[in-house]
Design goal:
- Chains C, D: It catalyses: N(6)-[(R)-lipoyl]-L-lysyl-[protein] + pyruvate + H(+) = N(6)-[(R)-S(8)-acetyldihydrolipoyl]-L-lysyl-[protein] + CO2.
- The complex is a heterotetramer, with two copies of chain A (337 residues) and two copies of chain C (325 residues).
- By secondary structure, chain A is α/β, with parallel strands linked by helices.
- In chain A, 35% of the residues lie in helices and 20% in strands.
- Chain A has a seven-stranded mixed beta sheet with strand order 3-2-4-5-7-6-12, sandwiched between helices. Chain A has a five-stranded mixed beta sheet with strand order 9-11-10-13-14, with helices on both faces.
- In chain A, helix 8 crosses helix 12 and helix 9 packs across helix 10.
- The termini of chain A are far apart.
- Chain C is 42% helix and 12% strand.
- The longest helix of chain C is centred in the N-terminal third of the chain and has 26 residues.
- Chain C is globular and about 50 Å long.
- Classes of the chains: A alpha/beta (337), C alpha/beta (325).
- Bound molecules: thiamine diphosphate (TPP) (2 copies) and magnesium ion (2 copies).
- One thiamine diphosphate sits at the interface of chains D and A.
Chain lengths: 337, 337, 325, 325
Amino acid sequence: MSMQPRSKPGPEVAKLNFLAALRDAMAEEMRRDADVFVMGEDLRQNLYGSSAGLLDEFGPVRVRDVPLAEAGVIGTAIGAAMVGMRPVVDITISPFLYPACDQIISIAAKSRYIYGGQTSVPIVLRASLFYNAGSAAQHSDRPYQFFLGVPGLKIVVPSDAASAKGLLKTAIRDDDPVLFFEDFNLWSTSVRCDHDDEADRTVPLGRAAVKREGADVTVVAVAASVGLSMKAAEKLGQEGISVEVIDPQTIQPLDEETIFRSVRKTGRIVAVDPAHRTGSFAGEVLARVTETAFASLKAAPRRVCTPDTHIPFAPVMEKGLYPSVESIVDAIRETVA
Amino acid sequence: MSMQPRSKPGPEVAKLNFLAALRDAMAEEMRRDADVFVMGEDLRQNLYGSSAGLLDEFGPVRVRDVPLAEAGVIGTAIGAAMVGMRPVVDITISPFLYPACDQIISIAAKSRYIYGGQTSVPIVLRASLFYNAGSAAQHSDRPYQFFLGVPGLKIVVPSDAASAKGLLKTAIRDDDPVLFFEDFNLWSTSVRCDHDDEADRTVPLGRAAVKREGADVTVVAVAASVGLSMKAAEKLGQEGISVEVIDPQTIQPLDEETIFRSVRKTGRIVAVDPAHRTGSFAGEVLARVTETAFASLKAAPRRVCTPDTHIPFAPVMEKGLYPSVESIVDAIRETVA
Amino acid sequence: MKNSLHLEMYRRMVRIRRFEAAAVDLLAKGELAGGLHTTPGQEGAIVGACVALREDDYMVGTHRSHGHPIGKGASLRGLMAELMARSTGVNRGKGGSMHLADFSVGSLGETSIVGSGLPIATGAALGAQMKGTDRVSLCFFGDGASSEGTFHESLNIAAIWKLPVVYFCENNLYAISTPARETVSVEHIAARAAGYDMPGHVVDGQDVLEVYEVVKSAVDRARSGGGPSLVEAKTYRFEEHAIGLNHLSYREHAEVEQWRKRDPIALFRDRLLDEGVISRGDLDKAEEDVGAEIGDAIEFARSSPDPDPAEAFDHVYATTLETGA
Amino acid sequence: MKNSLHLEMYRRMVRIRRFEAAAVDLLAKGELAGGLHTTPGQEGAIVGACVALREDDYMVGTHRSHGHPIGKGASLRGLMAELMARSTGVNRGKGGSMHLADFSVGSLGETSIVGSGLPIATGAALGAQMKGTDRVSLCFFGDGASSEGTFHESLNIAAIWKLPVVYFCENNLYAISTPARETVSVEHIAARAAGYDMPGHVVDGQDVLEVYEVVKSAVDRARSGGGPSLVEAKTYRFEEHAIGLNHLSYREHAEVEQWRKRDPIALFRDRLLDEGVISRGDLDKAEEDVGAEIGDAIEFARSSPDPDPAEAFDHVYATTLETGA
Ligand SMILES: Cc1ncc(C[n+]2csc(CCOP(=O)(O)OP(=O)(O)O)c2C)c(N)n1
Ligand SMILES: Cc1ncc(C[n+]2csc(CCOP(=O)(O)OP(=O)(O)O)c2C)c(N)n1
Ligand SMILES: [Mg+2]
Ligand SMILES: [Mg+2]
């Protein structure tokens, strides 16, 4: 496990990398609301890079290191949320969510419903997508699509530091359980950020961002694939192919109208998603688009995903597996061929 | 929890209901191979109806009641499988898989890969889909699609007693981890079965069954939706709409060729799936079909699923939620309109 | 012994017994849908533990969910209406028999996934501690649940953070048909407390007063910052795991009969009378009152409307998002 | 003391130390990709436990995966080639540093999900028991892992079925930066054994012979049908959790220095010399031999080919299905 790069703390920074942006989001929300607190493994030592300075500012009661016990820890967060707290749990690497699936699905997602609205569960579960990091199959999962079939959860997958900060702030203020997935491949990206201005900038959940307008092809991309898709769009723009890039930001609930509107204009759809192809969020996008905007479609829709194999350790085997600018360009070209 | 109907044991039965067919599959495989054994809660008392007589015939070493400890039990099965046993774990109701997700995903599915082929994990996990049973949100899950994004697992969802028996036998003989989902709504269905003839009838994994041929619309249905789709097809047949019904049987790996071949013929696809619509297997079918057979499509594809809400207790709220003959008929009609 | 508290304990035990008897009756008449996991025999354990709490304390229960809210003081109308799948049910018909949680009396859920409530009760205790209240959280779970990993994770977390929680095991000797003696690797589940450096107590679950005393001391300890405890009540369910499961043969008739002789309600009544704490007349009156309450609850439920089918879509989210730009 | 066994123990401890030193060196040179979780300081615990096993016994390890297979007798070529992501690696380059499992020496996986190995070791013991062999299963796990629910579920299952498994906790006092004294609610993890009615032992992990003696007795007990045991070795990792994590400040320099004085290899060497069990010459020769083995393993790995990128698609399934009719 490699846990670089790490962020520097403090409000004096004018350019924040992804992890520092998340740190600031948590710090700002903790200042704003005494019920917000963070818990996770090795937070006090800032092992994963998004908790620098939190212990100093907020103390060990609100910045809690936890034992290795994912179900117990997430369940504890749920219970605390039910009595008025707003826990943010850093589960660190996303497969560590699996031991807690029962608490997430059967309790966090369902309690409000089962009890007919008597309660709600305002928790945020942060989990990183640690792929493309030489960490082999047990650490490289991108499991946001897992939870798509579970009503009651909100799922956020930001694509850059700026939106990540605003989305995390909104997630913390939201009254429902939010899964917040952080792409490791974005950790080194940064955002210019004037603290005074930005401190209250939130990004709404459930709204897609049109990252680039275009007329010929709609690309819906998730996580670090948004940046790759932007590069692909730029490249193709030089050839006269006009690509619209949409970042859903929240994949559950999904802002499908923004996607449909775009496809009705372009007639073509490519969904880019670093998860495995089968069962992917990209597949859900294709299903919805073809059900709803079929008449507008001029070409077969395309998915650019990771193929259905596990993630191997050896870099020579791992590196070609994920969506790349080239594979996105190829898929877009196919739709306009 | 209601656990009716239950089966009667014994080789003298000429018509087997769903659970008795599964019981026979296990008994036959246990006779055939001394490494096969079953473990689960309350098996000895045949609480759920598919273990009648097993204790008497095979004894308590091979018919093991377990403590409530899903991760521990499934992990124990995995370990036993790694040293040469072939455990069949009856996890009973499918949400009880959630506490064991880590063992299923990180260990069962990935071990063979991580260790470069040094090991394999021949286990079968049986789990029932207990929806439409008045059991409320925590017991009514249909979570087979959850595991679609996990390479290394095989996922079987039979649609009737006869195929269930043959599929379970094949699953037990298979060298990979197989998740075997049993639709509660099929428990009362039965199959004519002459034991001497049938004892070795296996059904291959990874092959779809064309349940009915047709020329106008392809319906891909899963679990009890296959029977509903057959009824819908029959009804529409009387109106001159010719429906082809495909039962994938194994949803991972998926026999997509059989589906594509059909769609290339009919030009229309309806996927029927009792799971929630978002993230459904039905969505994956639509994505694959539209990617691959777009040029053949004459109409927008359709999904008939359960809407994205939890399952409520009150029958008046629950009963309208799942796919029905009527909703399938409507969706098919839309594609030919 | 404090007269009024004892009368209230008696009343709640009888209320549970009669409420469930009425439910079984309604099920037989076809007025109820779904399974029913009943509690007869365990009322002493439940009520003894619940009355050791303050009204504003928290409680988390299990699939065997009828007794806990009644023990904690819930009124019967909403519970009965929930069993009967009415829109006036505590859960508006969404939960049913395994989920009779009345949040107005501090219940934070009765969850039907065995073992899943332990972390929730732990978290409620954390919330109480962090908010600077002196509330305590009581966690019911069964002998079967004690084998789940959540038991271990929860007790460890509660112990290291000295959380105000009392883990209360209703050890009725079986998980459905599976005997604890074959699946729990220690004679007394309470003995596991030592592994978390917390006090463990075994109590006679048929003796409501013993349960009360021991849980009360654990609650007091928790309230004053002393941290968690584990209490194991040895008890028994007189009926089957769920109504209708009569074909199982996992326990001897003689065993059931033996335990029935130690009916917690009868034992308590006899003792109250023997010790002259409460008069026969007052006890009879309490039973009569409960009878009337039950009748009222059934009437209330019967005359309540079914949920509108469209309500199936409510309460999925607390905050609905506006999607679309 | 049996001369040859002791020499072998010494050799294996040195092999682990030198193998990891070489790996750290290769990492610095850029010949290695990925993280490295090393073991210096824990070799006594690992080797003492491993040599108490028979060759055909099973073993399950952790993310800190280099020591266990070497302790169990794996040859170094496949391990080094795996670290260097070569096709000749034990896992053909698929696993890497956290997964050096050599199944040919009975290792059933070194899993990087903390706590996930406990049920696997339990299951291997079940398999051994059901197949009528007298094999024993050894399960390594850390102090951090002891807080996972799988610990509880596994020990309970092993105890009720009297499975031949020895749970061996390498308590190195920390889970990354988190001290066990703040997250484990009991002084000695071994004390939890009582909650499962199995023997628990605390051993000095820096004393390979003490570890060996205690684990050997637990293995013998398991082999003869006596069921599982829990052994906790108090030990320490001299280096950081993973190579490169040098910025953490969770432990005092003085504490590290204190423990370094109890280097299990140095202690064992001194004792062997003091007691005249093995001559200095033989020990030096063993070290030399190990040095040569390491050199050979590095050469082997360096001259081995990278995996073909297409191999990323192998080994997903054992049985490939023919789809399509
Ligand atoms: C995780 C999980 N596994 C299995 C079940 C099925 N089940 C429901 S109640 C029960 C027995 C629980 O036993 P115990 O905890 O002793 O409670 P009791 O029923 O005796 O009150 C089982 C196995 C479940 N609901 N949840
Ligand atoms: C389920 C899970 N949670 C978190 C992690 C991240 N992680 C890797 S090693 C480690 C510490 C483990 O501590 P311990 O069990 O004491 O073993 P040690 O590293 O000290 O050998 C953590 C938290 C993980 N790999 N798996
Ligand atoms: Mg019980
Ligand atoms: Mg440790």
